[in-house]
């Protein structure tokens, strides 16, 4: 049978209380017995001395042990709680009040007698019980002298065997009844109290467990259930755990939504990319088949068809390379190598790569400021890739005799801004929020090998996100576009 936390706590506490109650009973019984022994011994401390002083049989030098034994027997009849012994200075028992068959020792240890008669130890002091081989009893004792000669000791067991037997029977019966009654009442009161307390303390845990089960039953869909509003900023650990559970549920559902959104985007992207892959591939295949089947083409037509097929092949290669790059970035398998470098030099290096294509369209590329020592701390390879993509994008959308400017702006003492501005076709305002989407192709997209659903801008955004930066854009249709992002200064 499986027990709940509430049941296990209740049973454990009851068992613990029973053990503590038993231990307390044993300790209190031992303490009570010790106190009783001390009180009895203190009460009868002078008993043996008075008997030895007042009894003529004990004052004579030579003893009639038979007469002593009769005397002890008479005294024991008068006081059944006592047992009387006369022992030699070495501890040998010379006379006693008990039946000979009940005596199991012929001598006793004399050291406890010396401790008692000389007040050398705290009470109670226990001496040997002649009626038992190893039992100890409280006693009263007094030395017996003949003149100055020690004749022996009067040794009186205060709580004799008959007294102990009767007392044990009476006490055992009554104490057991009291103990059982006390324990029963205490256990019932404790049970009622603990059941209430445990129900109070475990109720939030049961509520949290029920919420977890309902969350699992709902297919881990938060909108299928109403979460309990756990108290905020509470020091109660269960309430803190409940708040963490609610946060976890919210995050799991956000991740589910993001996964569904990403899956939807992936399917749409595959649809668009498939179309873009199919178009140049079909064109290239058509021209190559024409060249293969039509042998009547002139040399000029053949060169034209081959050139068109080559252009489509380059377009296809561009698209495939960028798809691989984007997939690599999305997989999170990119390392970041931070270093210090001169940003001005990097802008000149990137602009030099596009000088030929820019001069063919009579486009001027300027770096502002022309001279400067702007040191930044970032990944130079990724920043170069971003600037290259943005400059390539600007060249494709800038008409002949246009101008492109690469500029560095000091935002503050810790930040520099890199901007790529052109005076080309520009982008519609309603399209600005979509241009970094891999699926989106702006209405101003050019018809060259970069016809790839805006993958270049998507790659730029992803690279800057890896560097914990963001890219922004401003544009006016027919006036040009400006892309910019910030870098941390050295």
TrEMBL record:
Ranges where the HAMP domain occurs: 199-257
Reaction it catalyzes: ATP + protein L-histidine = ADP + protein N-phospho-L-histidine
InterPro entries: HAMP_dom (IPR003660), HATPase_C_sf (IPR036890), HATPase_dom (IPR003594), His_kinase_dom (IPR005467), HisK_dim/P_dom (IPR003661), HisK_dim/P_sf (IPR036097), Sensor_HK_Regulatory (IPR050736), Sig_transdc_His_kin-like_C (IPR004358)
Enzyme Commission numbers on file: 2.7.13.3
Example of a GO cellular component annotation carried by this entry: plasma membrane
Any Pfam family matching the protein: HisKA
Primary location recorded for the protein, binned into one broad class: membrane
Location of the protein in the cell: Membrane
Domain Histidine kinase intervals: 272-490
CDD domains in the record: HisKA (cd00082)
Keywords: Kinase, Membrane, Phosphoprotein, Transferase, Transmembrane, Transmembrane helix, Two-component regulatory system
Recorded superkingdom: Bacteria
Residue stretches spanning the membrane: 6-27, 138-158, 178-198
Xref: SUPFAM superfamilies: ATPase domain of HSP90 chaperone/DNA topoisomerase II/histidine kinase, Homodimeric domain of signal transducing histidine kinase
Molecular function GO labels: phosphorelay sensor kinase activity
Protein name: histidine kinase
Organism: Thalassotalea litorea
């Amino acid at each position: 049978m499986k027990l709940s936390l509430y049941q296990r706590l209740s049973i454990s506490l009851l068992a613990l209380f029973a053990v503590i109650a038993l231990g307390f009973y044993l300790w209190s019984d031992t303490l009570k017995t010790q106190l009783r022994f001390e009180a009895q011994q203190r009460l009868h401390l002078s008993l043996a001395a008075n008997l030895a002083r007042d009894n003529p049989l004990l004052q004579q030098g030579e003893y009639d042990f038979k007469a002593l034994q009769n005397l002890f027997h008479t005294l024991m009849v008068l006081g059944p709680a006592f047992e009387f012994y006369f022992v030699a200075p070495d501890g040998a028992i010379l006379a006693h009040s008990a039946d000979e068959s009940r005596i199991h020792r012929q001598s006793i240890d004399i050291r406890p007698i010396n401790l008692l008669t000389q007040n050398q130890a705290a009470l109670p002091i226990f001496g040997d019980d002649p009626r038992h081989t190893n039992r100890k009893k409280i006693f009263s004792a007094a030395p017996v002298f003949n003149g100055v000669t020690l004749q022996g000791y009067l040794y009186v067991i205060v709580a004799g065997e008959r007294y102990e037997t009767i007392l044990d029977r009476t006490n055992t019966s009554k104490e057991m009844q009291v103990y059982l009654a006390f324990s029963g009442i205490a256990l019932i009161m404790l049970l009622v109290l603990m059941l209430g307390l445990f129900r109070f303390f475990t109720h939030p845990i049961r509520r949290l467990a029920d919420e977890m089960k309902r969350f699992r039953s709902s297919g881990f869909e938060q909108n299928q259930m109403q979460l309990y509003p756990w108290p905020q900023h509470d020091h109660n650990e269960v309430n803190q755990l409940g708040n963490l559970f609610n946060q976890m549920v919210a995050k799991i559902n956000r991740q589910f939504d993001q996964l569904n959104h990403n899956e939807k985007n992936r399917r749409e992207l595959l649809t668009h990319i498939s179309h873009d892959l199919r178009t140049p591939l079909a064109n290239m295949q058509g021209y190559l088949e024409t060249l293969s089947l039509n042998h009547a083409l002139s040399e000029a037509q053949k060169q034209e068809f081959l050139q068109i097929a080559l252009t489509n092949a380059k377009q296809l290669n561009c698209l495939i390379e960028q798809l691989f790059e984007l997939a690599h970035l999305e997989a999170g398998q990119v390392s970041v190598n931070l270093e210090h470098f001169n940003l001005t030099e990097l802008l000149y290096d990137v602009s030099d790569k596009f000088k030929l294509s820019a001069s063919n369209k009579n486009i001027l590329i300027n770096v502002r400021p022309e001279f400067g020592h702007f040191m930044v701390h970032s990944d130079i390879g990724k920043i170069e890739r971003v600037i290259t993509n943005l400059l390539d994008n600007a060249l494709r959308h800038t008409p002949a005799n246009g101008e492109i400017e690469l500029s560095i702006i000091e935002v503050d003492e810790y930040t520099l801004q890199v901007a790529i501005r052109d005076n080309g076709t520009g982008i519609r305002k309603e399209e600005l929020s979509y241009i970094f989407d891999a699926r989106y192709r702006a209405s101003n997209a050019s018809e060259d090998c970069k016809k790839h659903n805006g993958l270049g801008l998507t790659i730029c955004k992803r690279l800057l996100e890896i560097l914990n930066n963001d890219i922004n854009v401003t544009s006016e249709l027919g006036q040009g576009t400006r892309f910019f992002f910030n870098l941390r200064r050295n």
